[in-house]
Amino acid sequence: MTTAPSPRVSVITGYYNRVNAVEATIKSILNQSFRDLELIAFDDCSTDGTRERLLQLQQELGDPRFKVIAHSRNKGFTQGMIDAIAESSGEYICVQGSGDISLPTRVEKQVRHLDEHPNVGAVGCWYTNVVSTSGIKRPRKPNAEGISFDELVKGNVFSHGEVMMRRSAYTAAGGYRAAFKNCQDYDLWLRMVRLYQLGTVPEFLYERYIRFDGVSYDPRKFSIQARYFLLTQRIARMPPHEAEIAVRTLEKEGPLSMIPKSDSALQRRYIKAALRSTALGAKAEAEALAFECIVNPIARTGIVAFIRAFSHKSFTPVRTLISKALGLNG
Questions:
Q1: I want to staple 75 with a disulfide (CB 3.0 to 4.6 A). Which of 8, 79, 92, 150 is the partner?
Q2: In angstroms, how far is CA 250 from the centroid of its own chain?
């Protein structure tokens, strides 16, 4: 029996309780101008009907390129990605954020970039942040071209959902690490950039939909995510032996035991996140973040007063300036 050739691109997207966002994301991939792909969507035990909608859509569309993996237990996003990639076969691995939209030529242009630049291990693109509740759009123009480890360790150049990478680069860098429940992509890029160049297609090819129940806006989730971010940076700078010990500790004990709430770098991230939520019009989320995360009472009081004052409609121009200062306008 003849075995069907492997697709050039494996698109991986993971879902947890995103039933209303399933159809738009899936169709944005299956309608790509580049056709030689497989789309693997995994559901991590959603409770809102996401799994059922994925399976229903698979039947409705009847596209053999579209595969659904339904987890029997909740694995978490990182392990879900690891397992889905292991089941895929494409030369290139394309990440797709659940609920986000890939514009029709995204895959085609990123494949072309990787084909033409064999030293590039992963490539992103320009994208637009879209606030789901208000429709506000914030264009982003990241540039990973020629970025060094020393530059990348200062901050992530990708948002993750818009990235395509070589399978060989993913494997050589060690793949995603299950210890990183958040920032698993940043941890991967910091290892990959030591072996390969990173790149960017300088075109708007992706729309990233911001929901205020996401990890960057929910105070409890963000508190954990911010610690993972800092640990990613700190572990990347460690000698290999120390880094291995730190990763094992992270996997065993989690990030809360490794970075205290009072950590100065962590507090700065909380303040910036509160300001970012304010700039995006998420007053309630910004206040909750300030109350729950900022430990200095004077700083907390000042930030809350700022949030309440500048959330008023008359301060829209000021919010625009805040957005620019925080890099939210591209």
A1: 79
A2: 20
H, E, C per residue of the chain: CCCCCCCCEEEEEEECCCHHHHHHHHHHHHCCCCCCEEEEEEECCCCCCHHHHHHHHHHHHCCCCEEEEECCCCCCHHHHHHHHHHHCCCCEEEECCCCCEECCCHHHHHHHHHHHCCCEEEEEEEEEEEECCCCCEEEECCCCCCCCHHHHCCCCCCCCCCCEEEHHHHHHHCCCCCCCCCCHHHHHHHHHCCCCEEEEEEEEEEEEEECCCCCCCCHHHHHHHHHHHHHHHHHHCCCHHHHHHHHHHHHHHCHHHCCCCCCHHHHHHHHHHHHHHHHCCCHHHHHHHHHHHCCCHHHHHHHHHHHHHHCCHHHHHHHHHHHHHCCCCC
The percentage of residues in the chain with a pLDDT greater than 90, rounded to a whole number, is: 72
More confident residue, 258 or 323: 258
Q: Measured between alpha carbons, how far is 92 from 37 in angstroms, rounded to an integer? A: 9
**Cβ 330 vs Cβ 129: under 8 Å:** no
Q: What is the largest CA-CA distance in the chain?
A: 72
- The structural domains of the chain, ordered by start, are 9-210 (3.90.550.10), 219-325 (no CATH)
Joined together, the tokens standing for residue 46 give 């959603």
pLDDT of the residue at 189: 98
Bridge pairing between strands 66-70 and 137-140: unpaired
Say if CB 252 and CB 245 are below 8 A apart.
Answer: no
pLDDT digit string, tens, across residues 137-163: 999 999 999 999 999 999 999 999 999
Cβ-in-10-Å burial (0-12, 13-18, 19+) of 19 comes to: middle
Each residue's pLDDT tens digit, 214-236: 545 566 788 899 999 999 999 99
Helix (H, G, I), strand (E, B) or coil at 91: coil
